[in-house]
Amino acid sequence: MSARPQVLVVDPGDQSYRGYCLEQVAASYDVVLLTGAEPSWEKPYIVDHAVADLNDSSALLAAGRVLAARHDLAGVVTWSEWHLVASARLARTLGLPAHSAEVMRACRNKAIARDLFARHGVPSAAAVTARSVPEAELAAVTTGYPAVLKPTAFAGSIGVIRVDRPDELPGAFAFAEAGASRSREDTAVLVEQYLDGPEVSVECVTHRGLTTAVAVTRKSMSPAPHFSETGHTVDADDPLLELVAPVASAAFNALGLTDGVQHVEIRLVDGRLHLIEVNARLGGDMIGHLVRLATGIDLPKAAADLACGHRPDLYRTRRGAAGTRMLCPAASGTLTERKINQLFAARTPWLQQLKWPRQVGDRLLLPPDGDLFTARAGVCIVTGRDTAEVNERLDMAAEEITLTTQAAR
């Protein structure tokens, strides 16, 4: 028997974007996995598993209890946005450290979060919930134009769109409502004030109510009116790092978050910070991996530590920068070619990873007909001394990458 603590991971996620999380947690913990399909790539990192319909909270809870009967679990952790509430409920049922399901639900539901931010004086955007075009039109009178429409309880920028004029609102509402209809929690649409300024995210670690801002992630976004994220950079010496912790802490206090790893989205408007949303989990798009490359801090392990009631190690062992770029085609279509100049790749040590989650023959669909899950063919990761060098290297790598699609005839 292993002497290492055992942690239950709910939903490992996609290997390309979340595989590093499982690998890093397994370096320190014996991982027991609760998953929706039989493990494949996960096998080297786990000691046991159970398969259940993770979209069925009763099935998830029952499978978790079965695993708990077989193992001396120290905690439950998930980096999946979709299973935050059920995982919290499971941990509480097993008597393990966790927030209440109500706290997780507030983090999942943007309307609830906006209300809590307003009540606690956290700078955010004015927002009104709408379930029809007339309600959205009335809400936009309050928020003004431009306005942003988005699903109340979804993720990944799906269904998020900017509206500049009243005549655009019916079409935008239909787009947002289509995204909201995919939610199992709340199908309403949120109409909110547009915050005009660059968007960043703050990767935070909170232990017993004390929040540490570990890194600031600078984002690259698709052109308006959509808000798809196309790339990220993390610089260990980002000057914003000293400014963001108080705003993030105020948001966590409003939501009732006292422990965990958080991914907080913020916009800078005229030099002031405004909350977009709080995600009570690791950031997606391999942001946690960028943080480790830039600072040496291991966010997946920190998440597992906190889930088990332990103080995480946030000691920095590196001071550099790292960045990622999502590889999307110029137009929707069938992927016909995807490759990198092999000579360039072989002689480029700062090119850390190039992953191709999509295969030749797959259909790629860009917004507004698709979303980030259907648009991306691959992801490129580089390192450098600072953000400027990272961006320069991302551009250099892009020139050596071929990605083509063929439109349907």
Quickly list its features.
409 residues, 32% helix, 4 domains, D-amino Acid Aminotransferase, Chain A, domain 1, Rossmann fold
Task: Characterize the structure shown.
Strands 13-12-9-10-11-14-18-16 form an eight-stranded antiparallel β-sheet. A four-stranded parallel β-sheet has the order 3-2-1-4, with helices on both faces. The relative contact order is 0.11. The protein folds into four domains: 6-98, Rossmann fold (3-Layer(aba) Sandwich), CATH 3.40.50; 126-193, Dna Ligase, domain 1, CATH 3.30.1490; 196-319, D-amino Acid Aminotransferase, Chain A, domain 1 (2-Layer Sandwich); 322-409, ATP-grasp fold, B domain (D-amino Acid Aminotransferase, Chain A, domain 1, 2-Layer Sandwich). It contains 13 helices and 19 strands. Helix 1 packs across helix 10 (299-307), helix 2 (57-70) packs across helix 3 (84-93) and helix 3 runs antiparallel to helix 4 (101-108). The chain has 409 residues and is of the alpha+beta class. It is globular and about 65 Å long. The model has no long low-confidence stretch (mean pLDDT 93).
CATH class of the largest domain: Alpha Beta
Strand order of the largest sheet: 13-12-9-10-11-14-18-16
CATH topology of the largest domain: D-amino Acid Aminotransferase, Chain A, domain 1
- State the share of residues found in helices, binned by percent: 25-40%
Approximate shape: globular
Number of domains: 4
Query: What is the rounded Rg?
Result: 21 Å
Mean pLDDT: 93
Query: Largest beta sheet, briefly?
Result: 8 strands, antiparallel
Assembly level: single chain
Structural class: alpha+beta
Total number of strands: 19
Spell out the CATH superfamily of the largest domain. ATP-grasp fold, B domain
Low-confidence spans: none
Distance N to C terminus: 59 Å
Report the sheet-strand fraction. 25-35%
Which architecture of the largest domain per CATH? 2-Layer Sandwich
Number of DSSP helical runs: 13
